[in-house]
Amino acid sequence: MTAAIYGCRSGKKVLIIERSVFGGQIISTPEIENYPGLISPKGHTFAADLFRQIESLDVEKASDEILSAAYEDELFTVCGKISVYTGRSLIIAVGTKNRKLGLPGEESFTGRGISYCATCDGAFYKARDVAVAGGGSTALEEALYLSLLCRKVYLIHRRNSFSGEAALVKRVGSTSNIVALLDTEIRDLRGKDRLDSIEISSGHIAGEGSIRILRIQGLFIAIGQIPQNTPFAHLADMDSCGYIIAGESCMTKTPGVFAAGDCRTKELRQLVTAAADGASAAANAVKFLEK
């Protein structure tokens, strides 16, 4: 949406295509605590304000899932499930999707005890015992949010220390109903119609492996993200993890194609860097169009 704002304010005709909800993953963030100038707004509030901003401009919007993209006769053609779109420049800002544990039963238990969004589903587990899988900032934020609703929150991480922001690690450590289980992996998901317990294995880094069953009513998975760049493989080079190779200019190998936000190669994937990418990509797209 930042790219759309900058493109429109530069006098260009802009179409923004969104697969699900305008705002992306930020909608599910309980609070934004590290965006300069904003004091802990809710993620959905921030996204709504941003959407109102693009609605005040002459930005065209479409809801569609992109399947492929190509370049021919000085036009980029983007094919979606619903329609086909064309333009003289293309900004790819598709973000990432949740990484899964890859365990048997994960798909069938999703929505039946397994979730990837605490703010979306946390209220269903009020006064119950839940677990969060992950050790980064997102997992820590999920655990802190759930601690306000749930009786007990097990925070399970396969490493022997958390990798999230130090401020979040400190808050987790001082929250009485969060139980940190480090050097621990989830081995099995159990239940009939719903998830009712998980099998965990602990102590392998320390050389003291042990297995036990943890009875919980909900499991929130926050073990990272994976890119969704496959439709653009012909237009942009990608690294071994599938991220589009692009620098601070957001330019890709194809003139007129730019990659912004979490979908590109970068050291820090945060809201503030995604917004900066949107501005940079739009500014460079405008320069390309005006050559």
Automatic annotation (TrEMBL):
Q: Which Gene3D superfamilies match?
A: FAD/NAD(P)-binding domain (3.50.50.60)
Q: Which SUPFAM superfamilies match?
A: FAD/NAD(P)-binding domain
> Which UniProt keywords are given for this protein, alphabetically ordered?
Flavoprotein, Oxidoreductase
The chain positions of domain FAD/NAD(P)-binding read 1-278
**Example GO molecular function:** oxidoreductase activity
Q: Which PANTHER family does the record match to this protein?
A: THIOREDOXIN REDUCTASE 1-RELATED-RELATED
Q: What is this protein called?
A: FAD-dependent oxidoreductase
The organism encoding this protein is Candidatus Allocopromorpha excrementipullorum
